[in-house]
Specification:
Blueprint lengths: L9 E2 L8 H14 L7 H14 L3 E5 L2 H11 L5 E4 L6 H7 L4 E4 L22 E5 L10 H11 L2 E5 L7 E2 L2 E2 L6 E5 L12 E5 L2 H10 L4 E3 L2 E2 L10 H11 L2 H19 L5 E3 L13 E5 L7 H10 L2 E2 L26 H9 E4 L7 H12 L5
Parallel strand pairs: 1-15, 3-4, 3-5, 5-6, 6-9
Antiparallel strand pairs: 2-10, 7-8, 9-10, 11-12, 13-14, 14-16
The protein binds pyridoxal-5'-phosphate (PLP).
The site of pyridoxal-5'-phosphate (PLP) has 14 residues, from helix 3 and helix 4.
């Protein structure tokens, strides 16, 4: 077998991998019962375990978060126009295009970096059927205000909660807001199943519809009720999720400590702004974004490059804006003049490495590079 060289670089994230020997018994069970996919025993167990851990009613597992977003829109029969944020991963808006829906971009709030509820109403037209906000970096959206607007105009709300695993708001899971919430369990996320995702559903009926849609629309052996997709999670991914759940609290604690260390060490660095923390609620410390302001000695891109020169692969999440990609930029709401806040933040942001295995020494080395840049 070819051995891959171990990379010495520090990446923005590193997957949570429990000890390999603990995974072997799960594999032996799969080999033993020969049930590889289609709602097998591990799939069923993980759905229940996630309901319990997250504090939600129903979970439907998916092969990835993008298929879950596409299916969530179908499950609620969303059409026409959907109001969303340009400041996200491109899959948010792609899920709309895959359903023939027109994304309408609304600017973000300069503090939370989530969609600005103040600007949603002006974007509503007779074609608007839903709002798709993102809990960016796992920071909760203004869920109550968004719900009030949705209720006033008869709109659905689907949260792209890909960053929001384990996040709590007003004493409960943030995933309980809106009509549906969508998680991603991609390798780069706080909780991963290699690839994976889920739709959080408030009742059994909608969960059943979602379950049909992710299995080609099959209701039983001979009945197909919709042009559903193949979005099913396989047993190996589900088993891995179950094992990882045992380690997730420890991982979140480590993330919290890294977040605190960065904040403390970067506090005195002129021109570097750390986002406000998520307040008194349970956060997941999924990302550590900093904003590089004009007072900083060098540009954002120069700092990004300087980090790379030191084998530190930070990422400019989210730059470019979704609305700047070719398949979106001709939509009127994608105009730069419509999105001044998002545009400014996208030009300032860098997400620093944060993951459980990142050592204090590595955090200090990253901070030293950021704090040590001379003007040029
Ligand atoms: C990761 C991510 C997705 C896509 O999830 P996949 O599981 O990679 O398909 C969607 N939206 C946001 C905001 C994400 O960060």
């Amino acid at each position: 077998m070819t051995k891959f060289p171990k990379k010495p670089q520090i990446y923005v994230t590193e997957p949570l991998l429990p000890p390999l020997d603990e995974f072997i018994p799960y594999l032996e069970q799969i080999w033993g019962n020969k049930w590889l996919t289609n709602s097998g025993p591990f799939h069923q167990q993980l759905e229940q375990a996630l309901c319990d851990y997250l504090g939600v009613k129903y979970v439907s597992l998916f092969a990835n978060g993008t298929l879950a977003l596409v299916t969530a829109l179908q499950a609620l029969r969303i059409t026409g126009e959907v109001i969303t944020t340009p400041y996200s991963f491109v899959a948010t808006a792609h899920s709309l295009l895959w359903n023939g829906i027109k994304p309408i971009f609304v600017d973000i709030d300069p503090v939370s970096l989530n969609i600005d509820p103040e600007k949603i109403e002006a974007a509503i037209t007779p074609q608007t059927t839903a709002i798709m906000p993102v809990h960016c970096y796992g920071h909760p959206c203004d869920v109550e205000r968004i719900q009030r607007i949705a209720d006033n105009y008869g709109l659905k709300v689907i949260y792209d909660a890909a960053h929001a695993f384990g996040v709590q708001h007003y004493g409960g899971s943030v995933l309980n807001y809106g009509d549906l919430s969508v998680l991603s369990f991609h390798a780069t996320k706080v909780f991963n199943t290699f690839e994976g995702g889920a739709i959080v559903c408030p009742d059994a009926k909608i969960k059943q519809r979602v379950d049909h849609l992710k299995n080609f629309g099959f209701v039983d052996e001979v009945t197909v009720v919709a042009p559903g997709i193949n979005g099913k999670m396989n047993e190996i991914s589900a088993a891995f999720g179950l094992l990882q759940l045992k380690y997730i609290d420890e991982a979140l604690q480590k993330r919290k400590a890294i977040d605190a260390r960065y904040r403390e060490d970067l506090a005195g660095v002129k021109g570097i702004h750390c986002l406000a923390d998520a307040g008194g609620e349970v956060a997941n410390y999924a990302y550590f974004p900093i904003l590089v302001r004009p007072e900083y000695p060098i540009s954002r891109d120069a700092l990004y490059q300087e980090l790379r020169n030191n084998d530190i692969h930070a990422r400019r999440y989210f730059y470019p804006l979704i609305s700047d990609f070719p398949m979106y930029r001709d939509i009127p709401s994608a105009a730069q003049s419509n999105l001044p806040v998002a545009r400014k933040i996208a030009s300032e942001v860098i997400c620093l490495p944060i993951y459980p295995a990142l050592s204090n020494g590595q955090v200090d080395a990253i901070v030293k590079i950021i704090a040590g840049q001379p003007s040029r």
